């Protein structure tokens, strides 16, 4: 079995936030990992690492890797579906690299995803670096704003507290795409542009009634996200939601929506708590979750999935969300089980136990994961796997990597505390082949527990994460390689 020798591993050793031994990450991989697990400025169990992310991005730009940072900004927005961190990365590369053409192109792509992305980019730059704005940043935002319709200008005119769309228009000076958009831009700058008539204004004026919802649904005035977020309101009002459920479970609609998988779980959990989740609703949301991983290759052979349910995984992904890292780990674990030919699953914290996943109903499998809290003894998960006799082709570990246990079972090697790599090595020795290990990092604290051959360290919350399991095994290097393949 091939692996890094002790000397090579020694050069990479560090400690995590718990003071437990871990491996350092390469700076580029560390930035990718932090970015794909970032809700910028949000608290984490071990503290917000926004400042560290910004400083690391600045250092990479200064060291000649600005194009990597620009491509990462595009990837996080277009593939990872993350907004705030993409705005911050664009701001950093524009500040450090200045007026390279790729800065303008990256800004244009990120600012084109939604009508308020350009405004948020300028607001982020001003918060980080003040004024003036670099030319490449202004021009990239102008390129994006030039494609806005009159409706979008009216819809996104409010912007953030620091910046509104009229401020962005004054700074960027975009060329309107037509006369109607030109009139809307002028009215926006003057402060006389009215709000567009949409479902929000209709609902506000007429109330949360079945009649209003039925009318909005029948006229097709609700977008996918609006349907998902308002499903509880529709059900509680007694509206006919069958047309909505048909859209929500449509694979094509799911793919267009770019919703993160845990959004469906969050909606399901909310409806469960309100006693509004009928079997029809359950089936629709379960089908939406299945559709969210349609673009992920199935995993042949046998897969072991280890899910971290420790106390540090109790952090919410956002101050505005009740969804925790443990929820996301359970969803990704259930998705990984669903795409596997055969799977064995366990949860670990201070201890570990096998889970009775079905591999058919994703929501039912998620619901079966216990959340007892406790320490993060990842080695207990490997001990449970060893004891099971399951001969896996791959092991998928879903965790925040803040290991703080493992002192008794595998943790001592030549008298010194070791990473969980030793447990992986022992499992490989037992089954007699070089099992793949895919370590999914949900928090991006900047350390890892595994290294060497047949190890794939990936990060994030979306279906994109699971894509890199089969891609890595097929010879594709991982997320970093895909980021570098982004065209600017």
Short characterization:
The protein is α/β, with parallel strands linked by helices and 488 residues long. The protein is built from 24 helices and eleven strands. The strands form three sheets. Strands 5-4-3-6-9-11 form a six-stranded mixed sheet. A three-stranded antiparallel sheet has the order 1-2-10. A two-stranded antiparallel sheet has the order 7-8.
Explain this structure.
By secondary structure, the protein is an alpha/beta fold. The chain folds into three domains: 27-190; 206-291, no CATH class; 299-484, von Willebrand factor, type A domain (Rossmann fold, 3-Layer(aba) Sandwich), CATH 3.40.50. Helix content is 51%, strand content 11%. The protein has 24 helices and eleven strands. It has helices at 6-11, 27-36, 50-78, 84-97, 101-111, 117-129, 135-145, 150-155, 165-172, 179-190, 199-206, 210-218, 224-229, 231-237, 242-248, 251-257, 261-273, 279-291, 325-338, 362-367, 378-388, 421-431, 463-473, 479-484; strands at 13-15, 21-24, 299-308, 340-348, 352-355, 394-399, 412-413, 416-417, 436-441, 447-448, 455-459. Strands 5-4-3-6-9-11 form a six-stranded mixed beta sheet. Strands 1-2-10 form a three-stranded antiparallel beta sheet. α7 (135-145) packs across α9 (165-172). It starts with 5 loop residues before the first helix and ends with a helix. Residues 1-23, 40-47 and 404-416 have low confidence and may be disordered.
List the helices and strands and how they pair.
Elements: H1 6-11, E1 13-15, E2 21-24, H2 27-36, H3 50-78, H4 84-97, H5 101-111, H6 117-129, H7 135-145, H8 150-155, H9 165-172, H10 179-190, H11 199-206, H12 210-218, H13 224-229, H14 231-237, H15 242-248, H16 251-257, H17 261-273, H18 279-291, E3 299-308, H19 325-338, E4 340-348, E5 352-355, H20 362-367, H21 378-388, E6 394-399, E7 412-413, E8 416-417, H22 421-431, E9 436-441, E10 447-448, E11 455-459, H23 463-473, H24 479-484
Parallel strand pairs: 3-4, 3-6, 6-9, 9-11
Antiparallel strand pairs: 1-2, 2-10, 4-5, 7-8
Helix pairs in contact: 2-3, 3-4, 3-5, 4-5, 4-6, 5-6, 5-7, 6-7, 7-9, 9-10, 17-18, 21-22
